[in-house]
Amino acid sequence: MFMKNYVLLHEDKSCGLLFSLLHRDKSKFYPYPVVYEDGLISRFKSASSGRKVWGFCCKGYIISINPAPEEMSPREAKEYCQNNIFAGQKYRLVPRAVMRNIFNNSLIINELLKNLGGTPFEAKWYMAANDRYTTDISGRTIHPNITCGVFPRMSEGKGFFYIPEDSKAAFYPAVKCQL
């Protein structure tokens, strides 16, 4: 019996950059490694047969293909993350830098999400974890533990802000992967 909370992640040889450079037929694999609920991480489209997708890998994180079931405040999001587990790890907010990377590649990632049966990112604010000391759009310093809002269509260095505790925003759960 499969228990998604305790899966052992294992990747096939398709995750390496060298692999993608050597294989010319791009139609046989996904642009990002896909993570299945049984623990397999693979870029091969053929690996999806009979498996359920949980997320995709980006910058050392596995990001869910669907957002949390509803928009939440930062406090509600932290509680939600504490109460859910994938691959033996508690959910967390995607770091702001990873979210920015996703948004910089949003056309490819949204197409991937559609192909996997997930929910594509929209042009709205998403909750993210601030992964370093930084300055928001008004010039205030934001502490790394503070939840940020990230917008997919803003240029680098702008487009994030501190999310007040009473504000609600969508977010995609993630877990840190050690591969």
Keywords:
179 residues, seven-stranded mixed beta sheet, alpha+beta, 14 strands, three-stranded antiparallel beta sheet
Identify the overall geometry.
globular
Total of helices? 4
Strand order of the largest sheet: 1-3-2-4-5-14-8
Mean pLDDT: 82
**Unreliable spans:** none
Label the structural class: alpha+beta
Helix-strand pattern: EHEEEEHEEEHHEEEEEE
Strand content: 25-35%
Cα distance spanning the termini = 24 Å
Tell me roughly what share of residues is in helical segments.
10-25%
Sheet bearing the most strands, described? 7 strands, mixed
What report would you give on this structure?
There is one protein chain. The chain is of the alpha+beta class and 179 residues long. It is built from four helices and 14 strands. The strands form four sheets. The protein has a seven-stranded mixed β-sheet. The longest helix is centred in the middle third of the chain and has 11 residues. The radius of gyration is 16 Å and the shape is globular.
